[in-house]
């Protein structure tokens, strides 16, 4: 890819996991990449991979998000694609989860995503072009045992993405939500956990937590293939609104669609009866 046709990508959370794989793949493909992380020493080596601008970024700091975008625009002239990858996990039943832990999830996963969106939109609106990619999770479509607040934070990003799309597509800006299932990243091993365990949930949230830990290194998803899929989807003539990644994600989403349709159909009469009668 020539420098004349390459895009400028800003990727958050590049120190590990999806973010690093995505940044590496983009650089190796000849793209211009703004590589960000809270600690730049963990991503400094990516400068050798290609045309990279290394910047510190903690997504919960809206002012820093704005400065990062300003630096990217000063260096490359624009930001064509924002990939919101930065996020954290948490294991615990809903009742086991302390308020501070729940708020931290939303601060990073939801408000961090919103902060970078707010930072790139003025430039994208001016150019009437751009793509915003929000990495959520299959847990942003389906609620899973033992990660209730994590799923809630990802559901929130899904809702924000759907609404944002209706607002910015008329301005030439695309919005894509990416929903991976289990991939061989550091997520499961690095996620925080509830401090106070309730025995009644051992067979549900407890079992799920143990399964997550046991899955580390054995997940079906290949993050390198995921990175390639994300770039391919973004560069498509008509990018998808939702990009599910992994067999488990596709199966879970289809099962959710079928269950939702069955539920709506079964209760359709009662649901419709709540409106004022048509005169």
Give start-end ranges of low-pLDDT stretches. none
* Strand segment count: 9
Please give the CATH architecture.
3-Layer(aba) Sandwich
| Estimated helix fraction | 40-55%
Keywords: Oxidoreductase
Organism: Sphingomonas oleivorans
InterPro entries: KR_dom, NAD(P)-bd_dom_sf, Sc_DH/Rdtase_CS, SDR_fam, SDR_oxidoreductase
Family: Belongs to the short-chain dehydrogenases/reductases (SDR) family.
Characteristic terms for this protein:
single chain, 279 residues, alpha/beta, Rossmann fold, 7-stranded parallel beta sheet, globular
Structure description:
The protein has 279 residues and is α/β, with parallel strands linked by helices. The chain has a single domain (8-263), classed as 3-Layer(aba) Sandwich (Rossmann fold). Helix content is 48%, strand content 15%. The chain has helices at residues 17-28, 62-76, 99-127, 148-168, 187-190, 202-215, 223-235, 247-266, 268-272; strands spanning 8-11, 32-37, 52-56, 81-84, 90-91, 130-135, 173-180, 192-193, 242-245. The strands form 2 sheets. The protein has a 7-stranded parallel beta sheet with strand order 3-2-1-4-6-7-9, sandwiched between helices. A two-stranded parallel sheet has the order 5-8. β1 (8-11), α1 (17-28) and β2 (32-37) form a beta-alpha-beta unit. The longest helix has 29 residues, at 99-127. The N and C termini lie far apart (63 Å). GO terms for molecular function: oxidoreductase activity. Pfam families: adh_short (PF00106). It comes from Sphingomonas oleivorans. Residues 7-181 form the Ketoreductase domain.
């Amino acid at each position: 890819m020539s420098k004349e046709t390459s895009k400028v990508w800003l990727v958050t959370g590049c120190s590990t996991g999806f973010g690093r794989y995505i940044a590496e793949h983009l650089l190796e493909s000849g793209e211009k990449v703004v590589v960000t992380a809270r600690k730049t020493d963990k991503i400094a080596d990516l400068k050798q991979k290609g045309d990279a601008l290394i910047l510190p970024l903690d997504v919960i700091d809206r002012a820093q998000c704005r400065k990062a975008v300003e630096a990217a625009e000063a260096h490359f002239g624009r930001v064509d694609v924002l990939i919101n990858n930065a996020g954290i996990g948490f294991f615990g039943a809903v009742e086991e989860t302390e308020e501070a832990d729940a708020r931290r999830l939303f601060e990073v996963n939801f408000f961090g995503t919103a902060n970078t969106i707010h930072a790139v939109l003025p430039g994208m609106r001016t150019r009437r072009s751009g793509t915003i990619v929000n990495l959520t999770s299959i847990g942003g479509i389906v609620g899973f045992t033992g990660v209730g607040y994590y799923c809630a934070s990802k559901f929130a990003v899904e809702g924000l993405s759907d609404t944002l799309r209706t607002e910015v597509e008329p301005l030439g800006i695309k919005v894509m939500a990416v929903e991976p299932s289990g991939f061989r990243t550091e997520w499961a091993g690095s996620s925080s956990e509830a401090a106070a365990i309730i025995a009644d949930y051992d067979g549900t949230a407890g079992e799920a937590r143990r399964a997550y830990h046991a899955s580390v290194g054995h997940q079906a998803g290949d993050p390198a293939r995921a990175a390639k899929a994300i770039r391919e989807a973004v560069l498509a003539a008509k990018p998808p609104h939702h990009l599910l990644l992994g067999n488990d994600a596709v199966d879970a989403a289809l099962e959710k669609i079928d269950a939702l349709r069955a539920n709506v159909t079964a209760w359709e009469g009662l649901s419709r009866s709540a409106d004022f009668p048509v005169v």
